[in-house]
Specification:
Radius of gyration: 23 Å
Oligomer: single chain
CATH topology: Rossmann fold
Largest sheet: 8 strands, mixed
Structural class: alpha/beta
Distance between the termini: 12 Å
CATH class: Alpha Beta
Helix content: 40-55%
CATH superfamily: P-loop containing nucleotide triphosphate hydrolases
Strand content: 15-25%
């Protein structure tokens, strides 16, 4: 299984390229699922079919879906509230449940919703040959790429803090050492933290595994697009994620721009996709386009 992320500035053609690559791979006999995790979904317009959060098979080997991030936010909040109620049963006495609604205003929820949807898509489609993600604009995309590493730092400190709490609890209740160990193993909060750490470690490793996961940056031949591409590549490099392919979309013969891009990113292959006279919509139109690279190189 390979995972492909199409990233780049808003409006450069990420969705179109993700759709094009997905279709070509499916036509070659690969089993592909294409998922839009961009709140402003475009895949339905490109394929000219209504899409939703459940995969829809558009042709043999190709299923397409559009993730509902709001649904993932609601799911996360519901699960969090349920966990709180199980662990802190006394919250009913203090009416703490009234404050759970404030969780929906927490910063970072949208990024976390994206991450949850990514993990869910990968877990449910491990039998596919390719999982392709059409991503949100740059800021949100970079945040969810960084989220597993940031969350791991926080969770590893949190588990230390939980050990301190349990040790204090042992002193207060005068629990013997053998019993203390049993209590730590059964502690629901500790179990939840350890489960999250395992999930984030696996997904963080997946993102950095070049044999499995590849990030393709899409840009247009203009200065603003290039500037944002530089930011994306720099941030991904800091996270240990490489960019093997850049797609220069809507290319109209800007050879100087192409050479400048080659000079900046000598380790990345740069693919030129010519600007089309008509809007690219519908499977027939996508089929008429060609990819200037072999599919076994993707």
């Amino acid at each position: 299984m390979k995972i492909l992320f199409f990233v780049g500035k808003g409006g450069v053609g990420k969705s179109t390229n993700a759709a094009l690559f997905a279709l070509k791979l499916a036509r070659s006999g690969k089993r592909v699922i294409l998922n839009s995790i961009d709140p402003a979904h475009n895949l339905g317009d490109i394929f000219q079919v209504p899409l939703g959060r459940k995969p829809k098979e558009l042709l043999s080997g190709l299923s397409v879906m559009e993730t509902d991030l709001n649904q993932w936010v609601k799911r996360y909040l519901k699960e969090t509230e349920s966990d709180f109620k199980k662990v802190y049963k006394y919250q009913q006495v203090f009416n703490l449940h009234k404050y759970f609604k404030t969780l929906k205003y927490s910063p970072g929820l949208e990024e976390y919703a994206v991450l949850l949807s990514l993990v869910d898509t990968v877990q449910k489609n491990s039998s596919k040959d390719y999982i392709i993600f059409d991503t949100p604009p740059t800021a949100l995309t970079l945040k969810f790429f960084a989220l597993p590493s940031v969350s791991l730092l926080w969770l590893r400190e949190l588990i230390k803090f939980r050990h301190i709490i349990l040790d204090k609890k042992e002193i207060i209740t005068r629990i013997k050492t053998a019993k203390r160990r049993a209590a730590v193993e059964k502690d629901p909060i500790m179990s939840k933290i350890e489960s999250l750490i395992k999930t984030y470690e696996e997904f963080s490793a997946l993102l950095k595994n070049f044999a499995t996961t590849r990030v393709f940056v899409v840009l247009n031949p203009d200065k603003l697009s290039l500037a944002e591409t530089c930011t994306i590549c720099s941030e991904l490099e800091n996270l240990g994620i490489g960019v093997p392919l850049m797609i220069l979309n809507k290319y109209g013969g800007e050879e100087e721009f192409f050479k400048e891009l080659e000079g900046h990113y000598k380790k990345s292959r740069i693919l030129k996709l010519d600007k089309q006279d008509e809007e690219i919509t519908g499977i027939q139109t996508l089929d008429s386009l060609s990819l200037p690279m072999a599919l076994d190189e993707i």
